[in-house]
Amino acid sequence: MAFFYGKEKPMSALRRFHPIVIFAYFAAVIAMTMLSMNPLVLSISFILALAVNATFQKPKAFFRGLGFFLILAAIIIFTNPLFTKSGSTFLFSIFGEDFMKEELLSGLSVALMLGAVFYWFAAYNQAMDSEKFLYLFGGILPTISLILSLGLKFIPSFQRQMNKVGDAQKGLGIYQKTSLWGKIRNRLRVSSALVSWSLENAIDTADAMKARGYGVKKRTAFSIFRFRTPDGWLLGIVLVLAGWLIAAHYLGLFEFSFYPILSQLNFEAKGLAGYVAVVFLGGLPLIIEVKEVLKWHYLKSKI
Question: CA 155 to CA 57: how far, in whole Å?
Fold first, then answer.
C-alpha cells in the first residue's frame, strides 16, 4: 500500500506478478461485475474496487474522482425513472413525476456497475503497463496490441504534456486569467501545441517500431518476465474463483429482478458461497498488499 511503503510504487505487490496472471485477474473481476445486475454483487465489487484504488491514489485525487462519481451516480439514479415506468412501490413525486422504489434501485445498480468497472480499469492501468500488454499479445496480434498499448499510454502522457505546455505559457506571461475569452484562447493555444506534439510523437514511435522490426515474422524478443511458483498459485486461485462464479451465474444463484417488484436475494448455502467467492476475488489485491506490508514490517524489525 502506498501509505505504508512510502515512496515505493503503488500496487507494487500485484505489479510483480506475471502479466498473464494480472490480465486474467482483471478480466475475471471486470467480467464478474459486468455480467451481473445483482445489487449485492455490484455493491461488493464497487466497494472493493474503491478500496483497491484508495491504496495507491493520493487522497486529493481519490476524493476528486469519488466526488465526480457521486454526481454521475445521482444523475443516473434520478433520471432512470424518467425512462422506465415499471415500478410498483411509490416513494415520492417531484413536479408531477412519480418515483418508484424499484426504478431508483435499478438506477443505483447501474451506477454501481459503471463505477466498479471504472475503478477496476483504473487499477488495471496501474498494474498492467504497455510493456506487459505487448508481451502478452505482441506475438499474436502485433498491430492491434501496439495500437491498444499506445492508446492506454497516451492519456496520462497527454495530461502530463498539457500541464507542461500550460506551465510554459504561464512562465512566458501569455496565459491569461482575466476573462472567459482569455481562458478559451489559452486552451486553444495549449490544444494546438498538443496536436503538434501528438503527431510528432506518433511518427517517432512508428519509425522506432519499424526500425526494431516490430511485426516481422520469426522475430525474437527479449523478455524479463518469468512464470514463478507464486504466479501459478495466484493464477490457480483466480481460475477456481472465476469458475465457481461462472457456475453460480448459470445456476441462477445471483439472479435478481427489479420489476414489477423486487426479488429476494439468495442467502442459501450455495448463494452465500457465491458471495464469499465475489469477496475473495475482488479482495485479492488487498490481501496481497496486506501480506506484503506485514512481511515488509517483519523484515524491517529484524534489521
Answer: 17
DSSP assigned state of 229:
H
Tell me how crowded residue 131 is: count the other CB atoms within 10 A of its CB.
14
Quick one: CA dihedral 281, 283, 285, 287, positive or negative?
negative
Report domain extents, the chain. 2-133+225-301, 140-211
Predicted TM-score of the model (pTM): 0.72
pLDDT tens column, 209-266: 777 776 666 666 666 778 889 889 999 999 999 999 988 888 888 888 777 777 788 7
Q: How many helices (H) and strands (E) does the chain have?
A: 11, 2
Distance of alpha carbon 16 from alpha carbon 160, whole angstroms: 25
**Phi first, then psi: what are they for 219, rounded to 5°?**
-95, 130
Distance separating alpha carbons of residues 88 and 263, to the nearest angstrom: 13
Amino acid 116 reads A
Helix segments in 139-268, DSSP class H:
142-172, 180-211, 229-250
Q: How far apart are CA 143 and CA 137, in angstroms?
A: 9
CA–CA separation, 234 vs 222, rounded Å?
25
Q: Which three cell numbers stand for residue 272?
A: 452465500
Provide DSSP, 32-75: HHHT---HHHHHHHHHHHHHHHHTTS-HHHHHHHHHHHHHHHHH
